[in-house]
Amino acid sequence: MKKYKLGYTSGVFDLFHIGHLNILKNAKEHCDHLIVAVSTDELVQSYKNKTPVIPHVERMEIVKSITFVDEVVAQTNRDKVAAMEKHQFDVMFVGSDWKGNALFNKTERIFNENGVDVVYFPYTSNTSSTLLTQVLTKIAQPN
């Protein structure tokens, strides 16, 4: 895989886990400078109908402390084309669970027209923030 100058990825990064770490590590291996956009609580509420367990400001601090991350920004909307225009990255890294999603099909087409690549990394199927939340909720419920 080619080495890029400026990479970008985004996510909620709630209940930080190995899948999050894998995408950040893999992304940094393929770019000189990695920008990570962390979704605000309001944005997550708007499309997932739930509030993250960890507040936005704390999630930003957690992601900022990861050695693979060069820059952290707030993600206030899901418009990847606007993010491309604002940050001028030449590659966006995404988990393979988004491949084929209508949002990313359109984004890929626009990115290609602008010389920006989309690179999909393997999804870590045995863990997710949603799965962790379900397990913790089950443990917390009295018998």
UniProtKB/TrEMBL annotation:
Keywords noted in UniProt: Nucleotidyltransferase, Transferase
Keyword Signal attributed: no
Residues of the Cytidyltransferase-like domain: 9-130
Listed Gene3D superfamilies: HUPs
A molecular-function term among this protein's GO annotations: nucleotidyltransferase activity
Coiled-coil residue spans: none
Keyword hit for Plastid: no
InterPro entries: Archaeal_FAD_synthase, Cyt_trans-like, Rossmann-like_a/b/a_fold
Stored NCBIfam families: cyt_tran_rel
Protein name: Adenylyltransferase/cytidyltransferase family protein
